[in-house]
Amino acid sequence: MNLTEIGAKAKEVSRLLGKLGQNEKNAGLLAAADALMACQEQILAANGEDVDAARKKGMNPGLVDRLRLTPARVESMAAGLRDVAALEDPVGEVESMKRRPNGLLIGKKRVPLGVIGIIYEARPNVTADAFGLCFKSGNAVILRGGSDAIRSNGAIVAAIQEGLRKSGLPEEAVQLISDTSRESARELMRLSGYLDVLIPRGSAGLIRTVVENSTVPVIETGTGNCHVYVDDSADFSMALDIIY
Description:
Strand content: 5-15%
Distance between the termini: 46 Å
Number of helices: 10
Radius of gyration: 20 Å
Number of domains: 1
Structural class: alpha/beta
Strand order of the largest sheet: 5-4-3-6
Domain Aldehyde dehydrogenase: 72-242
Largest sheet: 4 strands, parallel
CATH topology: Aldehyde Dehydrogenase, Chain A, domain 1
Enzyme class: oxidoreductase
Order of helices and strands: HHHHHEEEHEHEHEHH
Mean pLDDT: 93
EC number: 1.2.1.41
């Protein structure tokens, strides 16, 4: 399917997802978690190909480690979906309810956004995390990962879709764009009419590109930060190596 067809399917499915009850969504999440574990061998094999390709092209060892999946990391992805299933359903929650002088009640009600697009880089675990949060909140998601993790992402999405099918839920709740070219990313940024919001997750450069070029609403995320606290009893030479 081309991107317009993917968007149209996501839009169609989003109308159903927005009406799902908590039990149905939780069943889908738990089935997806089980499917990740059942398909662990295929996921690790696909990831092995990604890691080999990354090494051959000279990727930084630290980035290779972020790309690499292990049985423990696959299990962590599955556990993450189970954790999301255990959360309270955010859909329908009403807050800040106020009564006006004329007796009218005004409040904020949480509703699904519809179709969420997520552009991210070489972290395969983001694939499962993004699906889980979007599905729990009643949204369809279109994923566009980096080229370095395309085999891993494909295997993860295939497993999740299998879990959804077994639950009687539409597998198009999560779709992966297989084209990792820059043009496909630009096309996703311009998918007005199908995409309700786009979320970039990754480097400052990626986030800036999406914010500056997207014609659909963007939720601008931060690039993240890291704090290191050094106790006075620490090995300072080791601490300096960690910091720098």
